[in-house]
C-alpha cells in the first residue's frame, strides 16, 4: 500500500486509489502517517481533529479508526494502551522515499547525485500535504518538507549549471527567486544561468532587483560574493564561462568567499567556525581542550538546552584542536537526518566516500577512518540516539579517531565524557553598569547589536536594561543573538517589554543559518518534537510553575503521566528541558528556563487543559499554606520559612490566578495561612494588597472572608495601622464567634489589645488581652497564651509599670521557648531590652538586644532585627558612643528597608536626629525629623524606641534651639529629599 503526501493526499492499493471521502478520516490518517511508528494518544488526535471537540469526540474517533482499519492491511493500524500506532514500510510513504533519496544523493558521485535528486523531485505532485495546508498539525512537517525540496532543487540546478544545462534550469530558478527574493545563493545561480544564456542585461537586472529586495526587506546590502559575481558579469570575466566554474570556485574558496560556492567544493574544505565573534567561555575552552585531548574513550559530548551555544562552542573548540590532528577536523551537521540508519551514510558523504548501499556505510567508514588521525564533530545528535552504537563502533575500529558530539541529550554510552554547556554569565541584579557591561552575555549582545546597527553603543541607562534583558533570556546565546538582531528596529527597553508577549520576536529570517538557529521557537520545537505524547503533556503542564517545583508538588498538578512522573522528569532532564534549581531542604527542585517556560506555556494555552492545570496549581499552594501555618509558629519554622520563600513565585502566581478565575476562597485561604511568612520576610505590604483586592470581590464564602479579614488585621498591626486593625478584626470576629472558633477570636482580641497598648491606651488594651488569655487557656493553646502574656507586658510598660512588664514578658518568653517559636522569642527579648532601657538598666538592655538579634538573624527576620538594632543604638547613645550608635542605626535602616517597614525607618531617623542634635548638627537633626514625618506621619509607638525618654530630642526642643523659621526650612528640606539622599547625608556628616 502506498501513501502520498507530496501533493494531494492519496492512498493507493496495487496502483488503484483507495477512496477516503470523509475529511476527518483523511486528516486522522495523515496525522498517524506523520508519526508513523510512534504511538499517538487519543487526546492528542482529538485536539488536532477538532478546534472545539464535540462531547462524543472519543467515540467518533474510535469510529474513524474502525473505518480506517477496513481499508488498511491487517496489523497496520494498532491500538496501544497509550493510543494508536500506524506501521508503514520505509518505501510505503513518498516523503520517506524522498528523504532516503536525498541521503543517497549526498554520498553519490556528481553524475549519480543529479540523477538521484531528479528521482527524488519527481515524487512531488504539488505542495506538501496540500489538502491540510491550513491545519495546525501539518505545519511543522510542511515547513520541513518544503525546505528539503527547495534545497534539493537548488543543488540540482547547481549540478545542471556545471553540466552546461543553463537553458533547462532558467524557469525553475526564476520561480525559486520569485518565492525567495532574499536568498542570495538562488539569485546568484539565476544570474549565472542568464549570463551563460547570453542574457547579460537580464542577469544584471536580477542583481538590481535582489539588491532592492535585500534593502527593503532586511535593511542590508548584497553580500560581497554576490557583488563579486555582479562585477564579473559586467566585465565578462572568463571564470564564468562553462568548464571553468569549478576551478574558479576553488580559487574563490581559497580566497575565503564561500557563501555562493557549490556544496561539493565546500565539503572538501576543512570546516571553520562561523564568521561571528566568539564571546566568553575562555575557561571552558581550556578545560574542554584538555578533556578532548585526554579523554580515554575519545568521546566528548556537549549537552544542554536549545540555544545554549553548543554548536558554536564545538566549532571554536575544534578550530583550536585542529593542529593536533594530522588529518584535520570534519564537522557533520545531522540536523536534517531523521533516520538513525542513515547516520553512517551522512558521515560518509562528508568524507566524499561512496558506499554502494546504506548497509555498507559503517564498514566503509570504519575502514577509511582506521588509518587516520581525525577529529570528527557530530552536530545535533539528540534525535538520532539509537545510532550511538555507531559512534562507539567507529572508536573501537579507528584508534586515531576522536569524536566530539553536540546533543541536547547525552549519548549515554560507556566511556562518554558528557559536559553540560551552561548559559553565558549574566549580571547579578543590582550590579553597577561597569560590572554589567563586562559580563559575557552583555558583551555578546553588544557585539551582535553592532552588526545589526553599526554605531550601536551602550549608555549607563541602557546597560542596565541590556543586563536585565540578558537575564530574562537566561543567558542563552541564541536568544541573545536573536534579540540583538532587533537592535536596528527597537531599543533594548522595547525588546525587553515585548519578550513576554512575543516569543517569535526572537527570530531572524536571514539566509545562511540553519533553520533551528533562525528562531528560538524553532530551536525548542526540535526538542519538543522528540518527546513522546506523555512527556509533551507533562512538559506543557510544568509551565504552570513559576520559579521551580519539587516532584511531590508536581504530582498533585500534572494531568498526564502522574504514576510515572519520576521517569518523565528524568526524560525531560536528559533532554535539557529541565534543570536543577537550588532550594532549601533535601528534596530536589527543578525548573524550566524562562525562555523554555514561555514556549511551554504557549503550548499549554493551545490545549483544553490550561484552566484545569492552573486550578490544580492554585489548590496545591492553598494546601501548602494551610500545612505551613502551624509550622511557621513552631520549632521548625526556620526551615518552613525557607521552603515557603522558595515557593513564593508559585504562591504569587496562584493568588493572581485565583482572583482572575473567580476562586476567591482559594486565594484568601492561601494568603491568610502565610501571615507569619509575610511578616518575617518583609512582604506585609504585598500580602495586604492581595488580601484587600480579594476582599473587594463580591464572591467568597463567609468563612474565607473572615480568614482574610483577620490576615489583613495582622498585616495592619505590623504596619502600625490601628484603625485598619480594628476594622478588619471586628469584621472577622462576627463570623468567628458565630462559628465558635475560639482560637481565631482570641487571636483577634490579641491584635486589638496589642494595637491599643502600642498606641498608649492600656485601659482598652488590657481587657482585650486578658479575655484572649482566658480563651487560649480554655482552648489549651499554649502558644496563644504565651503570646498574650508577652503583649500584656508590652502594654503595661507604656504606663511605666516596668517590674510588672518584665515579669509578664519573661513569662511569655518561657512559653514561646517551650513552643519553639523563634520569632516571638526574638521579639519578646527585644521588648525586654526596651523595658530595661526605659528603667535605666543599660547592661541588661544591651544583653537582651544582643540575644534578640541572634534569634532574629537566624530567621532572617528583618522587621524585628531593625528594632533590636535601634535598641542597641539607644544604649550606645546613652553611653555617648556616637560612632557605634550611627553604625547600628545605619544597619537598622537597611533591615527596615528589607522589611519594608515605614515605622521602623521613621524611628531610625528619629534616633539619628538625636545623634545629630547631641553632636551640634541641629540643621541635619531638623531635616531628619522632617524625613521621619514624611515616611510615617502617624502617632508614635509607645513601646517602640522612638519615644521621648529614649530619643531625647523632640520637635519642640529643636524648634526652640534653631528658631521657628530655620527649623521649618530644614524640616521641609528633609521632607523633600529621597530616603537614600538623607541617609547618605547623615552618614557623611555623622561618621566624620
Detailed description of the structure:
With 992 residues, the protein is mostly helical. It folds into six domains: 1-163, Arc Repressor Mutant, subunit A (Orthogonal Bundle); 164-269, Alpha Horseshoe (Serine Threonine Protein Phosphatase 5, Tetratricopeptide repeat); 282-420, 3-Layer(aba) Sandwich (Rossmann fold); 433-521; 531-608, Winged helix-like DNA-binding domain superfamily/Winged helix DNA-binding domain (Arc Repressor Mutant, subunit A), CATH 1.10.10.10; 865-990. The chain has 49 helices and 14 strands. Strands 8-9-10-7-11 form a five-stranded parallel beta sheet, with helices on both faces. Strand 9, helix 17 and strand 10 (401-406) form a beta-alpha-beta unit. It is elongated, with a radius of gyration of 37 Å.
**N- to C-terminal distance:** 93 Å
Outline, from the CA principal axes?
elongated
* Coarse structural class: mainly alpha
Identify the quaternary structure here: single chain
State the helicity in percent bands.
Answer: 55-70%
Within the CATH hierarchy, at the fold level, what is the topology of the largest domain? Arc Repressor Mutant, subunit A
CATH class of the largest domain: Mainly Alpha
Let me know the CATH homologous superfamily of the largest domain.
Winged helix-like DNA-binding domain superfamily/Winged helix DNA-binding domain
Most strands sheet: 5 strands, parallel
Task: Tell me the number of structural domains.
Answer: 6
SS strand fraction = 5-15%
Amino acid at each position: 500500500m502506498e501513501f502520498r503526501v507530496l501533493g494531494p493526499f492519496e492512498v493507493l492499493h496495487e496502483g488503484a486509489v483507495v477512496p477516503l471521502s470523509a475529511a476527518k478520516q483523511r486528516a486522522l490518517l495523515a496525522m498517524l502517517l506523520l508519526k508513523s511508528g510512534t504511538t499517538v494518544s487519543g487526546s492528542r488526535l482529538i485536539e488536532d481533529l477538532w478546534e472545539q471537540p464535540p462531547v462524543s469526540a472519543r467515540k467518533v474517533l474510535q469510529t474513524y479508526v474502525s473505518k480506517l482499519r477496513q481499508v488498511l492491511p491487517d496489523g497496520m493500524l494498532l491500538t496501544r494502551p497509550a493510543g494508536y500506532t500506524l506501521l508503514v514500510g520505509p518505501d510505503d510513504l513518498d516523503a520517506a522515499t524522498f528523504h532516503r533519496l536525498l541521503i543517497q544523493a549526498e554520498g553519490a558521485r556528481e553524475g549519480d547525485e543529479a540523477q538521484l535528486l531528479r528521482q527524488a523531485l519527481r515524487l512531488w505532485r504539488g505542495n506538501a500535504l496540500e489538502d491540510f495546508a491550513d491545519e495546525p498539525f501539518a505545519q511543522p512537517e510542511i515547513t520541513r518538507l518544503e525546505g528539503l525540496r527547495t534545497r534539493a532543487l537548488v543543488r540540482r540546478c547547481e549540478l545542471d549549471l556545471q553540466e552546461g544545462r543553463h537553458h533547462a534550469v532558467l524557469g525553475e530558478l526564476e520561480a525559486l527567486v520569485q518565492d525567495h527574493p532574499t536568498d542570495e545563493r538562488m539569485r546568484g545561480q539565476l544570474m549565472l544561468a542568464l549570463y551563460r544564456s547570453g542574457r547579460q542585461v537580464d542577469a544584471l537586472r536580477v542583481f538590481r532587483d535582489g539588491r532592492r529586495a535585500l534593502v527593503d526587506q532586511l535593511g542590508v546590502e548584497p553580500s560581497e560574493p554576490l557583488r563579486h559575481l555582479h562585477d564579473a558579469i559586467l566585465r565578462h570575466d572568463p571564470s564564468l564561462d562553462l568548464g571553468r566554474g569549478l576551478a574558479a570556485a576553488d580559487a574563490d574558496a581559497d580566497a575565503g568567499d564561500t557563501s555562493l560556492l557549490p556544496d561539493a567544493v565546500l565539503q572538501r574544505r576543512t570546516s571553520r567556525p562561523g564568521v561571528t565573534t566568539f564571546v566568553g567561555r575562555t575557561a571552558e575552552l581550556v578545560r574542554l581542550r584538555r578533556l578532548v585531548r585526554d579523554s580515554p574513550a575519545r568521546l566528548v559530548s556537549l549537552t544542554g538546552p536549545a540555544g545554549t551555544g553548543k554548536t558554536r562552542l564545538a566549532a571554536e573548540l575544534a578550530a583550536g584542536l585542529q593542529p593536533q590532528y594530522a588529518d584535520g577536523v570534519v564537522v557533520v551537521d545531522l540536523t536534517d537526518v531523521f533516520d538513525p540508519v542513515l547516520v553512517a551514510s551522512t558521515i560518509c558523504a562528508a568524507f566524499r566516500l561512496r558506499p554502494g548501499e546504506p548497509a555498507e556505510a559503517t564498514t566503509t567508514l570504519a575502514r577509511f577512518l582506521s588509518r587516520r588521525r581525525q577529529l570528527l564533530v557530530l552536530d545535533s545528535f539528540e534525535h538520532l540516539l539509537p545510532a550511538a552504537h555507531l559512534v562507539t563502533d567507529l572508536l573501537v575500529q579507528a584508534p586515531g579517531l576522536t569524536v566530539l558530539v553536540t546533543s541536547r541529550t547525552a549519548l549515554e554510552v560507556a566511556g562518554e565524557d558528557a559536559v553540560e554547556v551552561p548559559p553565558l554569565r549574566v549580571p547579578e541584579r543590582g550590579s553597577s553598569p561597569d560590572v554589567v557591561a563586562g559580563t559575557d552575555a552583555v558583551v555578546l549582545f553588544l557585539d551582535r547589536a553592532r552588526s545589526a546597527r553599526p554605531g550601536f553603543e551602550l549608555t549607563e541607562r541602557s546597560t542596565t536594561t541590556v543586563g536585565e534583558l540578558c537575564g530574562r533570556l537566561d543567558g542563552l546565546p541564541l536568544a541573545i543573538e536573536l534579540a540583538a538582531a532587533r537592535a536596528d528596529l527597537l531599543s533594548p527597553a522595547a525588546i525587553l517589554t515585548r519578550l513576554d508577549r512575543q516569543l517569535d520576536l526572537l527570530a531572524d529570517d536571514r539566509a545562511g543559518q540553519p533553520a533551528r538557529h533562525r528562531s528560538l521557537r524553532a530551536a525548542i520545537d526540535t526538542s519538543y518534537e522528540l518527546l513522546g505524547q506523555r512527556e509533551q503533556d507533562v512538559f506543557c503542564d510544568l509551565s504552570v510553575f513559576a520559579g521551580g517545583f519539587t516532584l511531590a508538588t508536581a504530582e498533585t498538578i500534572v494531568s498526564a503521566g502522574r504514576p510515572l512522573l519520576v521517569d518523565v522528569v528524568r526524560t525531560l532532564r536528559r533532554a535539557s528541558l529541565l534543570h536543577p534549581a537550588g532550594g532549601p531542604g533535601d528534596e530536589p527542585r527543578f525548573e524550566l528556563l524562562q525562555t523554555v517556560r514561555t514556549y511551554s506555556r504557549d503550548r499549554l494555552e493551545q490545549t483544553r487543559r490550561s484552566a484545569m492545570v492552573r486550578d490544580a496549581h492554585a489548590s496545591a499552594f492553598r494546601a501548602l499554606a494551610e500545612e505551613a501555618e502551624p509550622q511557621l509558629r513552631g520549632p521548625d519554622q526556620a526551615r518552613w520559612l525557607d521552603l515557603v520563600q522558595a515557593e513564593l513565585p508559585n504562591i504569587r502566581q496562584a493568588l493572581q490566578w485565583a482572583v482572575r478565575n473567580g476562586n476567591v476562597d482559594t486565594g484568601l485561604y492561601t494568603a491568610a495561612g502565610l501571615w507569619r511568612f509575610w511578616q518575617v520576610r518583609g512582604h506585609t505590604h504585598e500580602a495586604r494588597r492581595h488580601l484587600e483586592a480579594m476582599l473587594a470581590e463580591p464572591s467568597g464564602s463567609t468563612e474565607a472572608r473572615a480568614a482574610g479579614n483577620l490576615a489583613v488585621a495582622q498585616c495592619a498591626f505590623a504596619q502600625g495601622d490601628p484603625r485598619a486593625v480594628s476594622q478588619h478584626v471586628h469584621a472577622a470576629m462576627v463570623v468567628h464567634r458565630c462559628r465558635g472558633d475560639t482560637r481565631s477570636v482570641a487571636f483577634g482580641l490579641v491584635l486589638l489589645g496589642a494595637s491599643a497598648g502600642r498606641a498608649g491606651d492600656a485601659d482598652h488594651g488590657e481587657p482585650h488581652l486578658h479575655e484572649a488569655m482566658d480563651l487560649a487557656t480554655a482552648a489549651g493553646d499554649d502558644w496563644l497564651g504565651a503570646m498574650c502574656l508577652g503583649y500584656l507586658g508590652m502594654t503595661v510598660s507604656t504606663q511605666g509599670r516596668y517590674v510588672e512588664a518584665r515579669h509578664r514578658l519573661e513569662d511569655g518568653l518561657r512559653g514561646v521557648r517551650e513552643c519553639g517559636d523563634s520569632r516571638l522569642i526574638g521579639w519578646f527579648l527585644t521588648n525586654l531590652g526596651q523595658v530595661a532601657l526605659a528603667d535605666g538598666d543599660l547592661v541588661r538592655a544591651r544583653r537582651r538586644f544582643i540575644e534578640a538579634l541572634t534569634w532574629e538573624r537566624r530567621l532572617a527576620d528583618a522587621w524585628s532585627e531593625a528594632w533590636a538594632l535601634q535598641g542597641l543604638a539607644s544604649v550606645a547613645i546613652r553611653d555617648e558612643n556616637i560612632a557605634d550608635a550611627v553604625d547600628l542605626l545605619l544597619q537598622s535602616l537597611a533591615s527596615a528597608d528589607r522589611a519594608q517597614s515605614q515605622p521602623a525607618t521613621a524611628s531610625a531617623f528619629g534616633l539619628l536626629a538625636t545623634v545629630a542634635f547631641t553632636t551640634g548638627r541641629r540643621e541635619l537633626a531638623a531635616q531628619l525629623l522632617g524625613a521621619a514625618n514624611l515616611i510615617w506621619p502617624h502617632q508614635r509607638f509607645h513601646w517602640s524606641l522612638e519615644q521621648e525618654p529614649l530619643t531625647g530630642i523632640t520637635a519642640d526642643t529643636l524648634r526652640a534651639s534653631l528658631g521657628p523659621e530655620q527649623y521649618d526650612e530644614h524640616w521641609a528640606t528633609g521632607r523633600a529629599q529621597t530616603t537614600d539622599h538623607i541617609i547618605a547625608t547623615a552618614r557623611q556628616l555623622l561618621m566624620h
